[in-house]
Amino acid sequence: MKLDGWTPLGQLKVGDRIAAPRRVPEPVDTHRMAESEVILLAHMIGDGSCVKRQPIRYASVDEANLAAVTVAATHFGVRAIRDDYPAARVTTLRLPSPVPLARGRRNPIAPGSMGWAVRRRSYEKFVHKRCSARQRPGGLVPSPPVGDRRIGRWDATTGQGRIYYASTSRRLIDDVAALLLRVGVFGRIKRARKLGYRDCWHLYIYGAQNQVRFLQVAGVHGEKAAAVQEVLLQLEGVVRNPNLDTVPTEV
Description:
Blueprint: H1 35-47, E1 48-49, E2 57-60, H2 63-73, E3 81-85, E4 90-94, E5 149-155, E6 160-167, H3 170-181, E7 188-192, E8 200-204, H4 208-217, H5 225-235
Antiparallel strand pairs: 1-2, 2-4, 3-4, 5-6, 6-8, 7-8
Helix pairs in contact: 1-2, 4-5
C-alpha cells in the first residue's frame, strides 16, 4: 500500500514509502494449545536441539527455564534427564521418548508430532502459523537463549530500553514479528553480517509505548524478569515522542 494506492510488488522501487501494519488479526483456524505445550514449544524453538538419531535436548544456564521445561515435559509423559557441563557453563536436559520408538511411533515432543516447527538447525526454525498469540506470545521469545538470542535491558547511557530478538533464521524472525503484530506490538527487522558466519537477523522493539506493551503483554521468563521490571520502571518517566512513521512529501 503506497500513498496513491495498492501497487504490484514488481513495480516497487528502493526508497518507496509503503504502509506497515500496526496489528494483524489471528487466522481463523488458529490452533489452541495446552499451556504446557506452549511453554515447551517456546523453549524448544529458542534452545532445543533435534539432531537425527540423537535424544531431543534442551540447553540453558537459567534454572527457572530448566525447571519450566522439566515440568512442561511431564505433560507428554517425558521425564527430563539433567546433564551438567561445568566447563561449558551450561546445563542440558535430555528428553527421551516415554515409549520405545518404532515405525509409526515417535517421541511425543519430536518436531512434527504435534505440528511443531522446530528443525535440526537454528537457521531452519520457524513458528507454525496456527499458533495463537493470545496464549502468552512472550513464551515464544524465551530468555536467555543459547543459540538464538533475546535481549531486554535498560541502557542508562542512552536512556532507552534495549529489546531485540536475534536468530540466523529469517523465517523465524518474520514469524515472531507476525505473532507480535497480533497483539499490537510493532517490530523492525535488521540484518547483521559477520565474515565467515551466516547472516543474523534482529527483530527490534523500538519506542517507549511499544516496549511497554511488549513487556506487559509478552514479558520475559526466568532470570531476565528482574531486568524487565527495571525497564518498565524507567519507561514510566519517559516522555512519549512517537516517531516511527514518516510522511511523504506528497502529503
